[in-house]
């Protein structure tokens, strides 16, 4: 029951009622976010996606929800549970996977890195304006020639020069970077060979971000190619507790779980679109929902969604308990996005020719699923992380 005594509306696709595990106050917040997304994000999502433009006018309205950094303790706003923040992330993905990615990069990757790896002074300097979304963050790890092997292949360099660091190199696929105010850049220290984290502020000389064009997925996300040419960053912008790739991995462990939730949210959208189309579309004189093979598609989609949501819920519980492991994050990301890929393919098939027309929505989810399937570790890399945990033997090379 919610605080006002009314039963909360069931979440579409939550077949086993996992959202009932939320505390009443968390469920109230989820319903508030869901209403906002239905009114402001979903109606414009297809148009923004088609034009590959980001709806900057919505940022102040999202900020007013006060959900940025919801898992971080602030004075007067204690951290919410991972279960709460994860359901909210899924709701964003249900409305639009691009906007879920925008929020995930800002809140999970950028704010999460500063919270996890910054000093107390750095946290106090950057996190409050990021919470208010007055400063937007990006996260620069992937490079043009290093994606899956980036753990050992960071080629961007950092050289200490008195009170500053000089950064040189390139990053690719960096979400939000075309307009971000604070850019987390991971670079290898020429002195000790370790990967360190730096906050490069917007307008810093030597930092150039160019939008990646002609994408076929998550088109609303403003991904950038970043060039760093003798980019000088003050020592106070070096993240104090980011001194090796192990520190980077602590952030990625949490965000891989978040991508699993994005997969769940996108599957919720997939199920809604497919179910609504099946009961309204008529062929052979009856709704196609009355045909057995159509019902088989819907049952498979809801099964994939339910299994993925159950796994994602357990991920959030383990994170709340502080016992979440790398291989658990890897399995959740791999499993949920693979099930998404299968589900959206079945849904697109159910739409027939209409499934390739943007107006019906499913074509957008179909394309966006390919990006979720690949980023934050491909299926193959996450599979090998799990395999290493199962056997004690690495099989990466």
Automatic annotation (TrEMBL):
What are the residue boundaries of the Acyl-CoA oxidase/dehydrogenase middle domain, all occurrences included?
138-231
Quote the SUPFAM superfamilies the UniProt record gives.
Acyl-CoA dehydrogenase C-terminal domain-like (SSF47203), Acyl-CoA dehydrogenase NM domain-like (SSF56645)
Please list the residue ranges annotated as the Acyl-CoA dehydrogenase/oxidase N-terminal domain: 26-134
Keyword Flavoprotein listed? The answer is: yes
Cofactor entry: FAD
Please provide the record's keywords in A-Z order: FAD, Flavoprotein, Oxidoreductase
Can you give the residue ranges of the Acyl-CoA dehydrogenase/oxidase C-terminal domain?
A: 250-390
Under Pfam families, the record lists: Acyl-CoA_dh_1, Acyl-CoA_dh_M, Acyl-CoA_dh_N
Q: What protein family is recorded? A: Belongs to the acyl-CoA dehydrogenase family.
| Listed name of the protein | Acyl-CoA dehydrogenase family protein
């Amino acid at each position: 029951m919610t605080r006002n005594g009314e039963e909360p509306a069931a979440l579409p696709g939550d077949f086993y009622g996992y959202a009932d595990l939320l505390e009443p106050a968390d469920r109230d917040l989820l319903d508030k976010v869901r209403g906002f997304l239905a009114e402001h994000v979903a109606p414009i999502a297809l148009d923004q996606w088609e034009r590959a433009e980001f709806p900057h006018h919505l940022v102040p309205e999202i900020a007013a929800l006060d959900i940025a950094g919801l898992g971080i303790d602030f004075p007067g706003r204690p951290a919410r549970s991972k279960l709460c923040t994860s359901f909210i992330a899924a709701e964003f993905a249900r409305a639009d996977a691009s906007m879920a990615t925008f929020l995930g990069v800002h809140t999970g990757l950028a704010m999460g890195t500063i919270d996890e790896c910054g000093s107390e002074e750095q946290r106090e300097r950057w996190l409050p304006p990021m919470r208010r979304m007055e400063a937007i963050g990006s996260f620069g790890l992937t490079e043009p020639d290093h994606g899956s092997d980036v753990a050992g292949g960071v080629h961007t360099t950092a050289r200490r020069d008195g009170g500053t660091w000089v950064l040189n190199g390139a990053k690719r696929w960096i979400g939000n970077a075309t307009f971000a105010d604070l850019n987390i850049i991971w670079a290898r220290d020429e002195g000790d060979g370790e990967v360190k984290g730096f906050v490069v502020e917007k307008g810093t000389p030597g930092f150039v971000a160019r939008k990646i064009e002609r994408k076929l997925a998550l088109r609303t996300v403003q991904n950038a190619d970043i060039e760093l040419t003798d980019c000088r960053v003050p020592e106070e912008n070096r993240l104090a507790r980011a001194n090796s790739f192990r520190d980077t991995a602590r952030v990625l462990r949490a965000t891989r779980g978040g991508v699993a939730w994005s997969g769940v949210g996108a599957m919720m959208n997939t199920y809604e679109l497919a179910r609504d189309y099946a009961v309204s579309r008529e062929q052979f004189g009856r709704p196609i929902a009355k045909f057995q093979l159509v019902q088989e598609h819907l049952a498979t989609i809801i099964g994939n969604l339910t299994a993925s949501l159950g796994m994602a819920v357990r991920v959030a519980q383990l994170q709340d308990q502080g016992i979440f492991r790398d291989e658990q994050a890897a399995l959740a990301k791999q499993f949920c996005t693979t099930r998404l890929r299968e589900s959206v393919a079945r849904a697109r098939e159910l739409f027939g020719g209409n499934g390739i027309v943007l107006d019906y929505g499913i074509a957008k989810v179909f394309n966006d699923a390919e990006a979720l399937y690949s980023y934050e570790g491909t299926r193959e890399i996450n599979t090998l992380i799990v395999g290493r945990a199962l056997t004690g033997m690495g099989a990466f090379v």
